[in-house]
Amino acid sequence: MKRIEGSAGVALIECVSPVRNKWRIRWDVQEQENGNANYMEAEFNHKPSDEEIRDTIVSWINQQTDETILSGFVYDGSMVWLSSENQFNYKVAYDLALQTQGATLPVTFKFGTDETPSYHIFESLETFTDFYMQVVNHIQNALAEGWKKKDAFSAEAYHLED
Description:
two-stranded antiparallel ribbon, 8 strands, 41% helix
């Protein structure tokens, strides 16, 4: 599975070598202003079934959704790494701050990257709530976008006319 630069109007499914029975499927076709397109492509050593096509594309959508959740959130100008561990740590700290009406604050988190770290101190329950709600909204929006893409998939687009 890789991203390819090619022509606009590329076929979503194609037998590229009848002798070797090599097939390619394409998705996420993004046409560009110069008349070209880029798209994702996967190769099979047989004509893929609807299920194989769906599994390949849905797997890619899930991977894209995970990447968006993991590294697509920015807070106060800094990238926030939302690994499962960090999500858990934010939730625990937020729940504890909420239960104690902010008595466990201030709390400090490291944002950014290892090369450019940014330390953010949450001193009030209001600012911590704002941060945590943005995290939750980011995750929910990323999941909803992934579901929308998966729901829009149709194997019909990959059926060849005989």
